[in-house]
Amino acid sequence: MARTDYYAVLGITRESSEDEIRSAYRKLARQYHPDVNKSEDAPVRFREVTEAYEVLADPQRRQRYDMFGSTDGAVGFGIDDLFNTFFGGETRRRERGPMRGADLRMQLEIELIDAVRGGERGIKVPRLETCDRCNGDGTEPGSTVTTCEQCGGRGEVRQVQQSVFGRFVNVSTCPRCGGAGKTVDRVCARCRGEGRERKERDINLTIPVGIDDGQQLRVAGEGEAGMRGGPSGDLYVLIRIKDHPRFRREGDDLVHVLRISPAQAALGDELDVPTIEGQRTTVRVPAGAQHGQSVRLKAKGVPHLGAAGRGDQLVYLDVVIPRTLTKDQKILYQKLHAASGIPEQSEDDRGVFDRIKDALI
Question: Quick one: which of 92, 96, 91, 228 has its CA closest to 153?
Answer without folding.
Answer: 96
